[in-house]
Amino acid sequence: MERTLVLHFHELWLKGGNRNFFLGKLLMAVRQSLEPLPARARIVHSRLLVDLPEEAVPAAVERLKRVFGVVYFAVARRVAAEREALFEAARQEVLGRQFDSFAVRAKRGDKTFPMRSSEIERELGRDLLERLQAAGHPGARVNLTSPGLTCFVEITSRWALVYTEKLPGPGGMPANSAGRLVCLLSGGYDSAVAAYKVMKRGVHLVFAHFHGLPARPGESSAPIARELVRLLTPYQFTSKLYLVPFEPIQRQIVTAAPERYRILLYRRMMLRIAETLARRQHALGLVTGDSFSQVASQTLHNLNAIDRAAVLPVYRPLIGDDKQEIIQAAQRLGTYAICSEPFQDCCPLFMPRAPALHARPEELDKAEATIDVEALVKQGVESATLEKYEFRQGEVRAPGAVGGKQ
Fold first, then answer.
1. Rounded Cα distance, 63 and 58, in Å
2. Which of 8, 85, 137, 155 pairs with 390 at a CA distance of 20 to 30 A?
3. Which of 115, 36, 126 is nearest to 392 (CA)?
4. pLDDT at res. 216
5. What confidence tens digit (pLDDT) does each residue in 176-203 have?
6. CATH number of the domain located at residue range(s) 2-168 in this protein
7. How far apart are CA 268 and CA 256, in angstroms?
8. Which burial class, exposed, middle or buried, applies to 119 when counting CB atoms under 10 A from its CB (0-12, 13-18, 19+)?
């Protein structure tokens, strides 16, 4: 038996003359997500429909939960667009379910269908009520305000689609519809959540991870970064991850700069290296997981002083979130367990006893005066390795490192 998935989107309707561009991106994302399932996705009467065998529905449902642009979707019974076939499908969908009240909601995409939407709702509602009463069903009453169950009907040129349950999608804008940015991926809770929020707006991310030497075997941060990229790749289908050895650069900063500015100078150097990588990837800016005053380097003054090192804009989608909100988002996303694994973060290396809280840009410029900034940026970029990931045929594949020059 075949089923039809009905995919709904809201924000795309606001795009006016550009709507077809975004719908095309959404349709492409749905098709890529469902490969190699025997599914056929198409747009019919401004609806995105997916026809597939019933046995493929569970796998399709799981994948559609990662398709940005889909606000909600439903598994529908598909029957001929005829009154009796429609009514019979609704009976099969409703009878046998448990609810305390019900309503019928109809949309008529094909205006040649002989019944108006209001007529479908009224007549089908009456038919269902009579059958429920005859069966002694406890939910045999109509509630148009807050029904316990809603029977949805959508009419297309050939088919009537009937369903009673809406499954939530992630919403947002379709993947790869808004340009490219480079995300500084730390391995902690914050940056992965920041990455997700930006991807949800249609941005395609390239990831840059700065790592040091682990304190003990098994505590390198690079495997954490790889696992995060693996988890995030199905949302955008392809990913690039730059792994940048940062400890040699940190040691040179430590020997040349005042102790209280170390963390801020680390952060400025990361931005410069990431910006160079961003230009190679034709990216339009950088993304970090900063939120105001979470740590010393994230005060308003320090973020301003850090940002002066970069020319490209730095986007911080978590800037107003507190730690608990970020952790809850990580738990929903599935990154929490990955980020909870022990690893050695490079930033706390040679941690100052009293880090500066209100640094000015000119103070950091002066602190960097004895550092060959250009040479350290070049060292970071040239020592980076690049790994490529792709979501294809239902799984994430990582062909491996391909060098840092690309």
1. 9
2. 8
3. 36
4. 56
5. 999 999 999 998 999 999 999 999 999 9
6. 3.30.2130.30
7. 15
8. middle
User: Two tokens at 322?
Assistant: 């507190």
Residue carrying structure tokens 């991870």: 209
Concatenated DSSP letters for 293-328?
A: TSSGGGSHHHHHHHHTT-SS-EE-TTTT--HHHHHH
80: phi > 0 → left, psi -120 to 50 → alpha, else beta; which? beta
Cβ atoms within 10 Å, residue 218: 10
Burial of 277 (0-12, 13-18, 19+ CB in 10 A): buried
How many residues does this entry show for the chain? 406
Q: 204 with 329: CB under 8 angstroms? A: no
pLDDT of residue 344: 64
Torsion-angle region of 209 (φ positive above 0: left; ψ -120 to 50: alpha; else: beta): beta
What pTM was computed for the model? Answer: 0.91
Q: In 102-203, where do the E strands start and end?
A: 102-108, 149-155, 159-163, 167-168, 180-184
- What is the C-alpha to C-alpha distance for residues 262 and 258, in angstroms, rounded to an integer? 7
d(CA 85, CA 11): 33
Q: Where are the domains of the chain?
A: 2-168, 180-401
- The answer to whether 1 touches 51, Cβ cutoff 8 Å, is no
Which residues lie across from 59 on neighbouring strands?
A: none
Q: Which fold has domain 180-401?
A: Rossmann fold (3.40.50)
pLDDT of 320: 95
Tokens standing for 206?
Answer: 């390239």
Confidence of residue 404 (pLDDT cuts 50, 70, 90): very low
Alpha carbon distance 43, 55 (integer Å): 23
Helix %, strand %, coil % of the chain (to 5) = 40, 20, 35
From residue 114, give the alpha-carbon distance in Å to each of 45, 82, 282: 17, 9, 54
Helices (H), 77-151: 83-94, 117-134
**2-168 and 180-401 in the same fold:** no
For residues 31 and 19, is the Cβ–Cβ distance under 8 A?
A: no
Q: Is the pLDDT of residue 213 over 50?
A: yes
Tokens 């075997």, residue? 217
Q: Give me the chain's average pLDDT, please.
A: 91
